[in-house]
Amino acid sequence: MAFAHGANDVANAVGPMAATIQIFGQGYVAAKAAVPSWILALGGVGIVIGLATYGYKVIEKVGKRITEITPTRGFSAEFGTATTVLVCSTLGLPISTTFVLVGAVMGVGLARGFAAIDLGVIKRIFASWVITIPVSAVLAAVFFWILGAFL
After folding, report:
1. Burial class of residue 104 (count of CB atoms within 10 Å of its CB; 0-12, 13-18, 19+)
2. How far apart are CA 42 and CA 50, in angstroms?
3. What DSSP string runs through 17-79?
4. Is residue 82 pLDDT above 80, yes or no?
5. Residues 32, 69: Cα–Cα separation, whole Å
6. Among 79, 93, 64, which residue's Cα sits nearest to residue 3?
7. pLDDT at 78
8. Exposed, middle or buried, 46 (CB in 10 Å: 0-12/13-18/19+)?
9. HSE-CB of 51 using CA atoms within 13 angstroms
10. Are the C-beta atoms of 129 and 100 separated by less than 8 Å?
11. Where are the domains of the chain?
């Protein structure tokens, strides 16, 4: 699973930064460009720091509150998630590993029956997904306008 996260999440995190650095260095973004190793390393360090500082909240919610996780269920969810993420990464599809893992944990819960999952937790997770996409779009536009005023 950690390998799958590295294959997908670091790439998603550093892609915009790599494009920005290429624009400052060359004045344009090439259709295909090599990403410097230091950018990948910075992305990896950022993910580790994020996990160490805030990751426990997500781990607790996904690992304990959606459904009861046993070693077999945990392995099945992790293996299903890793496989999905690696296939999508191989195809060049940027996906959310968190979305995939939540789906996998729901799947192992639903394998025991509908009553085995906490619908309240699932509703809050889905609501956060619906809210975060437009909020991040609005924030990005605001930051773009602010930066545009200074550049």
Report:
1. buried
2. 12
3. HHHHHHHHHHSS--SS-PPPHHHHHHHHHHHHHHIIIIIHHHHHIIIIISB---HHHHHHHHH
4. yes
5. 42
6. 79
7. 93
8. middle
9. 13
10. no
11. 2-117
C-alpha distances in Å from residue 123, one per residue of 53, 114, 117, 120, 126? 25, 14, 11, 5, 5
The residue among 10, 21, 16, 7 whose CA lies nearest residue 49 is 10
pLDDT beyond 80 at 141: yes
Q: What's the token pair of residue 20?
A: 């920005």
Residue position matching structure tokens 């090439």: 30
72 burial type by CB count under 10 A (0-12 exposed, 13-18 middle, 19+ buried): exposed
What per-residue confidence (pLDDT) applies to 118? 94
The tokens for 128 are 């956060």
pLDDT at 80: 96
Structure tokens of 58?
Answer: 């997500």
